[in-house]
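Just wondering, does anyone understand these tokens?
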Amino acid sequence: MQSQVTNHDSLDAPSILSHSVSGYPQADYSLPEDVSRTVNESTQFHSEFVGRMDMYAPASAVAKYLDAHQDWFCRCAHPMKVQPLTNNGYALTVGRFGSFGYEIEPKIGLHLLPQEQGIYRIETIPVPGYVSTGYDVDFKAALKLVEALLDPAEHELEPKQVILPSEYTRVEWNLALTVSIHFPRFIQSLPKPLIQKTGDHLLYQIVRQVSRRLTFKVQEDFHKSQDIIIPKHSRKHFFWQGNGHSEEENS
């Protein structure tokens, strides 16, 4: 997790489905009825991700914080647009993405299920009154709290730099994300391997960016709520894709 995605942020993705550029001219892609069958065919992109963020407090304190997501989720997700739906549900608009005048602004409903034996799950739910145009999203995530003894050397902490509890909590998460997009005919005419490769890369870039920024804000908000001050370089974010690609970043 980690957020702060702004609309039109730059992403290193090939141009066929890159982040949209403000002011890009809009075009009319309405097609005759005889080609509607082609337009209705969807291209599916699926990736699995694994990540981790460290919280310098016992698991009980982290669980209490996560249980009260109504107090922090909207704040930490900003500037993404968030609309509470129920006590445990939110409508989330990530940003606007597209190229060649074709853009989508995905909005998804997320249900943050109450923890069950230390596992937190997030699933897709419908957004009342909203019908997605040109795409479908299936979001399945799980978070697990793992408490461990704190080794200052492992976390690059100087002995007298800060005063931290003797244990910390690893919030380990995994995400299975499937996005189906109904492209207009002019994109479907491009080579399918190119479309697939570009879409998979863009999906990775979006999840990586949202994860990195949301993690930073949640870590910052949690430690502030606990009156815990930690060095900036210790706010690490671990991120892996299902294909084995991994990253370790300082927030």
